[in-house]
Design a protein that fits this description.
Layout lengths: L12 E2 L14 E2 L3 E6 L5 H14 L4 E5 L4 H10 L10 E5 L7 H12 L3 E5 L1 H5 L21 H18 L3 E7 L16 H4 L2 E10 L2 E11 L9 E6 L2 E4 L1
Parallel strand pairs: 3-7, 3-8, 4-5, 4-6, 6-7
Antiparallel strand pairs: 1-2, 8-9, 9-10, 10-11
The structure holds adenosine-5'-diphosphate (ADP) and magnesium ion.
Adenosine-5'-diphosphate binds next to helix 1.
Protein name: AAA family ATPase
GO molecular function, one term: ATP binding
Pfam families: ATPase (PF06745)
Length: 245
Amino acid sequence: MVRVAFVPDAFERVKTFVPGMDKLIQGGFPKGHVILVAGTPGVGKSILCSQILYFNAMEGKKCLYLNLEQNSSRIESQMIQFGWDPKKAKNLKLLSLDADDPNLVNFLLLELKNSQYDVVCLDSLDSITSNPVSPSNLSFKEESKVFAMDPLNMNRLRLKSIFKALGQSNSTILLTSERVESPGNQGGLTRDTISEFLCDGILLLRIGSVGTAVRRTLAILKMRLTKIDLFAHPFEITETGIRLE
Ligand SMILES: Nc1ncnc2c1ncn2[C@@H]1O[C@H](COP(=O)(O)OP(=O)(O)O)[C@@H](O)[C@H]1O
Ligand SMILES: [Mg+2]
């Protein structure tokens, strides 16, 4: 009989603690990777990310939820209704910032460098990328070259700079992104349509038909260093949070 040697996973992983999810990604996200959480509004992106951060913080991991979408009290009350009291998670920092602040990206990158978080959620990436690039928020070396470029190229370069900096931090980073889904729309996963090529992993959350029912589903479309299936896994939002079936 030929025995297949058991090869342990050499990569350190960050558990999601979402019931049913870790087994789909060999135990968790590869540490330090940048993961895109894409989906239509209301599908559960913010709940998924706050669940992952809350449970990681309760396990002693240093976490940052950077909210650029709504005021922090709304994220906080959404967490509390699931029984995740941010005050109990001493290692979880909730921060709400103005997405139009020209210093936002610089602040974020400095905060990541100085505070050395284990897990970070940026909710949402679109809040940054949909901002028009103005000379006042061009701060990267590469960007100093782009004054003569058209806005699309300028945005592409800016995104590449941001992703490069995020990838260089030791934090595992979740980026939420709103997806426009309409019949016949074969467009990208993000509004900028570039981020999906720059990230290490993609989770796609959808509301759609599963058999005769309309369900929420989660598919792992990309996860570097990880064996994945591409199935749409139905999930539920229960009174204790997200649970995959
Ligand atoms: N306790 C709950 N039970 C079931 N569904 C809930 C509960 N709380 C919120 N939801 C659902 O979650 C949705 C909001 O999820 P959220 O993560 O904020 O979405 P988004 O993808 O826009 O970030 C609401 O539209 C609602 O349908
Ligand atoms: Mg949200």
